């Protein structure tokens, strides 16, 4: 009978961890979660070229990589090492941004509907140029993004 209780407690604990993981994943993939810390980025995005696009469409690489980097950012914020309301956001690698841009702008649909655009841009990408080489102000409105709140939100 003792082994049954231990097994049930372990299964209950695993179920709670799994449910918490699923819930945490759902919450952390919403724009509302991102703008908790990145309010100026959201405002600058709303006035940029792609206000209908979600944060994670451009700012993700892969599930495991994103969760590791996200957990690190949360730790740095709560440990007082980074203040997202004051410090400049970390820069995403330009090639990574280009990979995410390409998912929409160099899709099969674009290749079919605008082959000249597709050909021109795939040749540029093969030269390992970044989308940001030519398109410096895509996405975020840089002037709005620069208007960051300078007083720290959390006591350090």
Give short descriptive properties of this protein.
mainly alpha, single chain, extended, disordered C terminus, 10 helices
| SS elements, strand count | 0
Instruction: Give the SSE string.
Output: HHHHHHHHHH
Biggest beta-sheet profile = none
The overall pLDDT average reads: 78
Helix content: 55-70%
Radius of gyration of CA atoms, rounded to a whole number:
21 Å
The helix/strand class is mainly alpha
Distance between the termini: 51 Å
Polypeptide structure, described:
The protein has ten helices and no strands. The model is unreliable at 150-156 (pLDDT under 50). It is an all-alpha fold and 156 residues long. Helices cover 62% and strands 0% of the residues. The radius of gyration is 21 Å and the shape is extended. The protein has one domain (35-145).
Question: Helix and strand layout, with pairings?
Answer:
Layout: H1 2-28, H2 31-34, H3 39-46, H4 55-58, H5 63-78, H6 94-105, H7 108-113, H8 115-126, H9 131-134, H10 142-145
Q: Quick gist of this model?
A:
The protein contains ten helices and no strands. The protein is mainly alpha-helical. The protein has one domain.
